């Protein structure tokens, strides 16, 4: 972790058109070269934060005191500037490779295209770069996989192809939105390990958006817990068990554990005051 | 309470064999788990046993009676299923009342009002919710309606196909508690498909590990922690789940 933050967000609020309530209210955090987890239930606004940073929600009403990415003011950045940033210096890994890859183009060509969009080079060079990256995400026989269509690869392989595509341009910020929830548990660990190694090796700032407390506990340094559009608690991942906010504690307790007592699981009692509290 | 026996169940779609030959037995009142990676045929077993798929060979018996001998009416009163996605498994333009009263009408069961109210109380929903539509309910409430719909005919066997994987942990806890309580109260035999070993461990005494359509091993719940699994894939699955939980 360096003192110079990659991303600095202060007081981010966002409301979808036509919605009565804002989806995100006053979220603030900074991100260095570290792995930050954002957890919360569905509808808590965690994915919206990720998309707002990428400015992928042009119709929503967005406001913030400050939103800076490596010296670029994201609030004022034009769409042309954003096009240069997205995919090159900040990129996003989505949940399900089945829906995120173009079904009628070869996987490798899609990876190479991501590179050619941002770097002037020959097709041959992009091809070589893509093959090398596929090898880096531990795909055996990358030349063969390069020529496959998305329906010909498994979910775990598809997700590794997505990771390859997003890391190929050496971004400084990667936002992973539920990167492994479509995968089986045996494959999930491998994919997370690959992502984790690459992120560490290249010093990338990672935002991991997930509903899964076990995942952020194992693969993040710091965790923001969101409830109803607000950050209710920020913790070091290793201190997750010592969380003080009743919402975080409720989420942790509601999770069944292997070898657990099989007593009825404690059910989360929602307190209306959680939506009023100032973010800690 | 009746036992469920799956005998040499086998199905192919064209040239692809989905289930080569699956056999297992579930004791009366037991909750039996099926785990395995996606595409291993867990859900297919349930769809065959409930005759949603008919082109399979082998047999599935509830007590001494084969599901193939039952007519539709009898089958529906014997076996019911709860699906993964509560958004997809309820008719969007039917109110909860319509969804729940349809089976009562078809099976000509009396005291409709009393049964509807009881079904709602059983799954912990206010009786007023009978007049809501699925889009007016949260994911957890919808899954409660799906469970109420499955149980309103008082089936002997309940098949659960990933009943909580579309839900948040906090809501999952509510649904798991509900299923445990209903099983104690009503005493049905239960088969639960899940990819989450922690959920299986919480609900089931025994579970089968599936890979590529085969049951590679049937294990007691204790085997997750004591390391008595023999098959390499079962060991891999258990090790991955433990590592993921950070409990290893």
TrEMBL record, chain A:
Alphabetic keyword roster: ATP-binding, Cell membrane, Membrane, Nucleotide-binding, Transport
InterPro entries: AAA+_ATPase (IPR003593), ABC_Ni/Peptide_Import (IPR050388), ABC_transporter-like_ATP-bd (IPR003439), P-loop_NTPase (IPR027417)
Family: Belongs to the ABC transporter superfamily.
One Pfam family in the UniProt entry: ABC_tran
Localization per record: Cell inner membrane
Keyword ATP-binding: yes
Membrane topology summary: Peripheral membrane protein
Record-annotated ABC transporter domain positions: 7-253
A Gene Ontology molecular function term of the record: ATP binding
The name this protein goes by in its record: ABC transporter ATP-binding protein
Main location: membrane
From TrEMBL, chain B:
Domain called ABC transporter: residue spans: 4-237
Organism in which the protein naturally occurs: Salipiger mangrovisoli
Superkingdom of origin organism: Bacteria
Location(s) in or outside the cell: Cell inner membrane; Membrane
Assembly notes: The complex is composed of two ATP-binding proteins (GsiA), two transmembrane proteins (GsiC and GsiD) and a solute-binding protein (GsiB).
Function recorded in the entry: Part of the ABC transporter complex GsiABCD involved in glutathione import. Responsible for energy coupling to the transport system.
E.C. number: 7.4.2.10
Name used for this protein in its record: Glutathione import ATP-binding protein GsiA
Catalytic activity annotation: glutathione(out) + ATP + H2O = glutathione(in) + ADP + phosphate + H(+)
Top class in the EC scheme: translocase
InterPro entries: AAA+_ATPase, ABC_transp_ATP-bind, ABC_transporter-like_ATP-bd, ABC_transporter-like_CS, P-loop_NTPase
Molecular function GO labels: ATP binding
Record has Nucleotide-binding as a keyword: yes
Keywords for the protein's UniProt record, in alphabetical order: ATP-binding, Cell inner membrane, Cell membrane, Membrane, Nucleotide-binding, Translocase, Transport
Homology family: Belongs to the ABC transporter superfamily. Glutathione importer (TC 3.A.1.5.11) family.
Record's keyword annotation contains Transport: yes
Protein's membrane topology: Peripheral membrane protein
